Amino acid sequence: MTISLILIPILLVFALNIPRVSGKTAYYAALAFFAWQLASVFFPCLGSQQFAGLAGKFFSFNIAADGISEIMIVSASVVAFVSLMTSKVFSTSDGKLFSLSNLMLLCIAGINGLVFAKDAFTMYVFIEVIAVASYIMISLDKKVGALEGGFKYLIISSIATVMMLFSVALFFLAAGGTGFAEISAAVKDYGSNGIVLIAIILFMCGLLIKGGLVPFHSWLSGAYSQAPAGVSVFLGGIITKTTGVFTLIRFLDSVTGFNGEIKTVLLITGALSVVGGALIAIVQKDFKRVLAYSSISQVGYIVLALGAGTALGVAAALFHIFNHAIFKSLLFVNSASVEKQTGRLDVDSFGGLGYKMPITSTTTAIAFLSASGIPPFSGFWSKLLIVLALWSAGYQGFAVLAVLASLLTMAYFVTLQKKVFFGELSPSLENVSEAPKSLTVPAIILGGITIAVGLLFPLVLKYFILPAAGL
């Protein structure tokens, strides 16, 4: 499954460009691949193994699949599918749809390579593939806001790139290679090796920047809010969690382990992000900016779970990555629906929109409740695991903080839901109707996953999350 999920999307891009096909053809080809990729995780007999065997004769990568990578592949497949469907609604030309379809395929190839990587340099290469494709997608509309958001993303991401590349070079100097096993052997003696210590600090800082965590979050709100609607779904749903948080999990689990200093950094960074992101989200007036700062807060929960430094903490982090991918993608899809039907995103200009857009209003409420940790939705269970992991590891203060921060999450989401969907219908919205099926169908699917995972939590935990975390 590993090599095939990297090479097939790349080969598909070549096939779509030689000769160049229509945007509609590229769109359906990309959707078909995303669906096949999702199915191949659960049904390996679909042909990926045969292709992987053939490709392995010509290509050699330091990659391997495991339970953690499978969670990310499932998350990325779902998010890519719905984000491309959202993009089609907003694509004003055949060329734009063609470009988005190709760029998302390249991004998915990068994501697949990253989650399978067992080598620090391989991780760096695939992270940069994702970053370049993401920058182009953010700026694709060529509007001033999009170009500014993309430029900030490019500059700050480049800083992280330099840190990580320098770190990889230092690891090679200290360990004689960049494989996880080689670096891990050198890291065991990092207390007496300043080169390894500097390399660890640089690599972790680069990942925290990529993940948009406080205090490295300045690029995130502009990129999320100014990107085209479908790209916002992709960024918020999977990109930052893959290039930042997932890579951090892999690096800590495979290379450094969870010692006292690293856990302290994770706990402080996670706590700052949880509280800081929520406080800034409360005062935002733009629908997508609320969601952007909410993402900072939710990713902070994931890092807090890692700060516990236990297998339960890793399991909680993985579960919240999946849940956040689903409910945050749902929220960005619904912000796209509101933007499509009203032409604006200023939350103070709405009111009573739920009367005109009942599906969008209902699925938004489902996502809000899940993000706030309300049972029986999926977000409740992952937040509960995070609190339990922190408490059992002896970090009761951070566990209490995680619970109290959920009240802040509830505050800004209730405020947004009230201003946009509840109350008296604004006269300017009299002619508004429900969003097209290309937006409501993905919303219903994502809302259904949020409910189903919450209701089937024991099965999901037993057969999907705990095995991935090695429990």
From TrEMBL:
Membrane topology type: Multi-pass membrane protein
TM ranges: 25-46, 58-85, 97-116, 123-141, 153-178, 190-209, 229-252, 264-284, 299-322, 365-391, 397-416, 443-465
A molecular function GO annotation: NADH dehydrogenase (ubiquinone) activity
Superkingdom of the organism of origin: Bacteria
GO cellular component: plasma membrane
NADH:quinone oxidoreductase/Mrp antiporter transmembrane domain sequence ranges: 117-409
Subcellular location field: Cell membrane; Membrane
Tagged with keyword Lipid metabolism: no
Gene Ontology biological process terms from the UniProt entry: ATP synthesis coupled electron transport
UniProt keyword list: Cell membrane, Membrane, Transmembrane, Transmembrane helix, Ubiquinone
Similarity comment: Belongs to the CPA3 antiporters (TC 2.A.63) subunit D family.
UniProt-recorded name of the protein: NADH:ubiquinone oxidoreductase subunit 6 (Chain J)
Organism: Endomicrobium proavitum
